[in-house]
Design goal:
Length: about 475
């Protein structure tokens, strides 16, 4: 749970296609809106810039529990055969869902952030998940914008399906500009939901919405800002264009946000720290040196300003003024030298971190391959390509190479490789189409100078 039911203040940033809002709320059994501000959102404004605009609507700092709700995020429902994800949970299941939603969200499964909850299953053996995802650089920009204003980002979510009626178990429907959703939250078991992307050229999306919901669509719900109801829906909708209705929606949303386990949310990741002692010592030393240079730089700037004030205010004789100008030139040169030293120190720190992180990357890769290799898989060779490495092998089962790629992806990303999806070719000698020949490409994602210099002497590693 991201915030308790005890009385606290949260900041809610709501981004629609045409407006941005900031709402400061005192939470508790009866949430109270302390401040409500909104303004127009300029066309084609990125999410981070829109979040900055929403924060700046008031002069107060955002809360340390700031939540962003944006229709810009991708949100949808995906069905997966239970047998294909049997035994997966936690980070492994999250990574698999990234691959499964890639074609819909258009986000890189290796770098995107995804939140999910499991919905009621579809008999006999299909599991259903409600997912929301956002690009890594986007959520980092949002978190940075909030931090610079003195707040802290708790998580991001899509507003679809957020505000349920007060009576538990009563289903409701929502229509936004691009999505439509039907939802039901019961007291027991998994929640039920259906989400469809709206279309202006066909009503098949409306039919799919009802079929996937499993019953008739609810007769009551919300009409989001700038959205219009479909002509074939006859139920009663409350429009968020009306400020009183919008405030009721916000209160309902805050109550539901106190139970994030019943909707998908995406929280910013906490950066990992290095485990190498000498790297920490080297980093600390460079930071201390940089701090010393910064203090000297600050002293030089203060001295420079003092001399300039003396030249203007005291208006010394020409000879004294020339002396001061000469001293000012010396200080300017010292500042340039200090700037050069700071850049050199920073470059050395980056190179030290790179060397510490990648000095044993190949041995770690081989260890990961050995641990993740299935008994039905044989790795024939590892070859060097112009943009990285390529794993070549054979497998009896078609999923063995995919499982190896999933196993390698998290560790390889830390070592500077992006694992591509396996390329497969079956020999059609077995019932399942196998045996299978596969290739897995590991693409370089950051410079490794010492590796590139040694490529001519170590072009191919083969498994004995």
């Amino acid at each position: 749970m991201f915030f308790s039911r005890s009385s606290r203040t949260i900041t809610l940033l709501v981004l629609s296609p045409t407006e941005v809002m900031r709402v400061d709320i005192k939470t508790g059994d009866k949430p109270v809106i302390l401040d409500f501000s909104k303004t127009d959102r300029p066309a084609r404004t990125p999410i981070a810039a829109a979040a900055e605009l929403a924060i700046s609507l008031t002069e107060t700092k955002p809360s340390q529990r700031t939540i962003l709700l944006a229709e810009d995020l991708w949100s949808g429902i995906i069905d997966i055969d239970d047998r294909s994800i049997y035994g997966l949970e936690g980070d492994e299941l999250n990574q698999m869902l990234k691959f499964e939603t890639e074609s819909q969200s258009n986000l890189d499964p290796m770098t995107g952030h995804l939140g999910f909850i499991e919905l009621s299953p579809v008999p006999p053996d299909t599991r259903r998940f409600w997912c929301t995802s956002i690009a890594a650089d986007v959520i980092m920009g949002i978190s940075t914008a909030i931090s610079l204003r003195g707040g802290k980002l708790a998580f991001c979510a899509h507003p679809i399906g957020l505000a349920n009626p007060d009576v538990l178990g009563v289903p409701w429907i929502e229509f936004s500009q691009t999505l439509a959703g039907a939802f039901a939250v019961g007291g027991d078991g998994l929640p039920r939901a259906s989400i469809a992307t709206r279309s202006t050229t066909s009503d098949r999306w409306f039919q799919a919405l009802e079929v996937n919901f499993g019953s008739e669509l609810p007769e009551e719900g919300w009409l989001m800002m700038t959205a219009k109801p479909p002509p074939n829906y006859q139920g009663a909708l409350q429009s968020l264009e009306i400020e009183g209705t919008l405030r009721r929606w916000i209160i309902a949303a805050v109550k539901r946000l106190a139970r994030p386990e019943i909707l998908p949310v995406v929280a910013p990741r906490v950066p990992e720290t290095s485990s190498r002692t000498f790297a920490r010592i080297g980093t600390a030393a460079t930071l201390i040196a940089a701090l010393a240079c910064g203090l000297h730089y600050s002293w030089g700037s203060s001295r420079k300003n003092l001399i300039e004030q003396e030249l203007v205010e005291l208006q010394k004789p020409a000879e004294q003024q020339r002396e001061l100008n000469s001293e000012l030139e010396i200080l300017n040169k010292q500042q340039e030298e200090l700037n050069s030293q700071v850049e050199k120190i920073e470059k050395q720190r980056v190179e030290l971190a790179l060397l510490a992180a990648h000095s044993d990357r190949f041995s770690k890769l081989l260890m990961m391959i050995a641990k993740g290799r299935d008994r039905t898989l044989v790795l024939d060779e590892i070859t060097v390509q112009s943009n990285g490495l390529q794993l070549i092998g054979r497998a009896i089962r078609s999923d063995a190479a995919t499982n190896l790629a999933l196993h390698l992806s998290p560790g390889a990303a830390k070592l500077g490789w992006k694992v591509e999806a396996p390329g497969m070719q079956g020999a059609n000698k077995l019932v399942n189409g196998g045996p299978w020949e596969f290739t897995i490409d590991l693409i370089e994602t950051e410079p490794t100078r010492f590796f590139r210099e040694d490529r001519s002497s170590e072009s191919t590693l083969r498994e004995e």
